[in-house]
Amino acid sequence: MAEARYYAHPQNRFWHLVGGVIEVDLPALAYDERIATLRAHGVGLWDVIASAKREGSLDTAIREPESNALRELADTLPALRAVGFNGATAARIGTQLLKGGDFALLALPSSSPAYAAMPLVQKQQAWMGLRKFLK
Question: In the predicted model, is pLDDT for residue 60 greater than 80?
């Protein structure tokens, strides 16, 4: 059953990784507090894909993706300094939607447990590249 929350799977390391960037123990917080804490640090969270067909949770299983209106959203955010993409699929799609903007685009290693090619410590080092864009 879908949780209707970002990164609800307990093995996904997103909350650990972004928590390291902002120096807050996000996994220890309730979901609503996590979102409020991101917002307080100038961090937004939104899916690149609005809808798609997919069996299972792997990005390689995504079929018929429909993108969210990232360009339109970015155009409403004059203080936007960077967009980080969680994984290669998000980076590929999102970069196409946002190229040419006046902000950095960062392809980050996936926080998914399915992406085991890189140890967590290396993932965290890559995600720390977001820190220089925080307010």
Answer: no
**H or E stretch at 98:** helix 88-98
- Supply 18's token pair: 């972004």
User: What is the pTM for the complete model shown?
Assistant: 0.89
Each domain of the chain, given as residue ranges in start order, spans 14-133
- List residues with catalytic annotation: 12
3-state secondary structure of 83: strand
- The pLDDT, as a whole number, for residue 3 is 67
Q: Is the pLDDT of residue 124 over 90?
A: yes
- Fold entry, domain 14-133: Uracil-DNA Glycosylase, subunit E (3.40.470)
Question: What angle separates helix 14-22 from helix 31-40, to the nearest 10 degrees?
Answer: 40
